[in-house]
Amino acid sequence: MSNPFVAAVLLVVCAAAATAAQTPPTAPAQLPVVQLPPPPQPFSDWLVALRAEALSRGISEATVAHALDGLEPLPVVIERDRTQAELMLTLDRYIQEHVTRKVVKTAARLTREHAALLRKIQAKYGVPRGVIIAVWGLESNFGRFSGVRPTIQALATLAYDPRRSQMFREELFAALKILDSGDVDPAALRGSWAGAMGQPQFMPSSFLRFAQDFDGDGRRDIWRSQADVFASIAYYLQAHGWSASQTWGREVKLPRGFLDRVNAVAPLKTEGCQAEQQMTMPLPLSRWRQLGVRSRDGRALPAARIDASLVRGAKRAFLVYPNYEALLAYNCAHAYGLSVALLSDHLR
Predict the structure, then answer these.
(1) Could you tell me if residue 308 is inside a domain?
(2) Per-residue exposure over 159-186, b if at least 16 CB sit within 10 Å of its own CB, e if not
(3) CA 337/CA 305 separation, integer angstroms
(4) pLDDT tens digits, 41-51
(5) 269: in domain
(6) Domain residues for 279?
(7) Is 143 left (phi over 0), alpha (psi -120 to 50) or beta?
(8) In what order do the strands lie in the sheet with 283-284?
(9) What pLDDT score does 255 carry?
């Protein structure tokens, strides 16, 4: 998901989130419930203070009244927050289950269907149409799932809950700003239980920064406007460093015994996106050539002047270029990033 908090989640949790965007998982029969202290004040008192702060931030009285009058917390949101199933999928298994023949066929059909629009968006933002379609597919199952929970109510519930109150409080104010802007009708402001919205699954803060009005109707509609959905995905990736002159990387073959010495050559990253703990520090592509790394088909790596990091699963290995970091910015999980990348390769 494209939001500033996915980076705080480990690889398997991010993989679970991407899966949940397409098919809500069946919760285990019994999951431990974390016991937390009750909120320091009644919800009604908390809401009074929230209303005052919203007005002090410049949100109109009409928007505040419409959004907050009579608001009550949603117990199901807290339940989902406490009982998320962590799908322990390996990188290889996740890719296998998400880049299936059926998914590729659907993605190819929709790429053809939206070809004219995608050409215009690619020309403006420099992000290939296959990458846009792949992100769209993994985030919302090609637009079939954009969330059903009332965003204001869900975010208010999580902001009132003490576990991550400050994080969701800021997202709640961002959602109120969206309503104030007139981009979406209040009844249509719906998303996931955690507040991710629309077909790109943007958190409200990401919507304010990256959502686009590509169809020119005066609204940034990531729920119903295909032009706005695709353009918003493309702009998010462009803003996070995607370069039109490069690709994401490639699958590779490693020489025998290479894994026993790779850490001495290129140690793992220790900063930034947590998923990068499974990624080596970058080396020039020419250095990987010298080390005997080859393309998947056995040919020598290209002689391009570009740095690459190694990402590997149990059975597959990949050299990833700077563009791949933009995919991790959208959702901080190698399983997700590589699934997007490999699906996009089918759509070239």
Answers:
(1) yes
(2) bbbeeeeebbbbbbbbbbbbbbeebbee
(3) 23
(4) 899 999 999 99
(5) yes
(6) 249-320
(7) left
(8) 283-284, 307-312, 317-320, 249-253, 294-295
(9) 94
Q: Measured in whole angstroms, how far is the alpha carbon of residue 77 from the centre of its chain?
A: 20
Largest CA distance in the chain: 67
Burial class (CB in 10 A: 0-12, 13-18, 19+), 208: middle
Cross-strand pairs, 280? 268
For residue 284, tell me if it sits in a domain. Answer: yes
Has residue 7 got a pLDDT over 80? no
pLDDT, tens digit (0-9, with 9 covering 90-100), for 193-231: 999 999 999 999 999 999 999 999 999 999 999 999 999
pLDDT in tens, 68-108: 999 999 988 888 877 654 445 788 999 999 999 999 999 99
The torsion angle over the Cα atoms of residues 101, 102, 104 and 110, rounded to 10 degrees, is 160
Tally of domains in the chain:
1
130, 346 Cβ separation under 8 angstroms: yes
Residue 297 within a domain: yes
Confidence (pTM): 0.84
Q: Which of 11, 107, 3 is nearest to 336 (CA)?
A: 11
Report the alpha-carbon distance of residue 87 to residue 10 in Å, rounded. 11
Pairwise CA distance, residues 17 & 98, whole Å: 13
Cα separation, 277 vs 169, in Å, equals 29
How many CB atoms sit inside 10 A of residue 119's CB?
11
- Name the token pair of 140: 């919302």
Q: Distance between CA 91 and CA 105 in Å, rounded?
A: 22
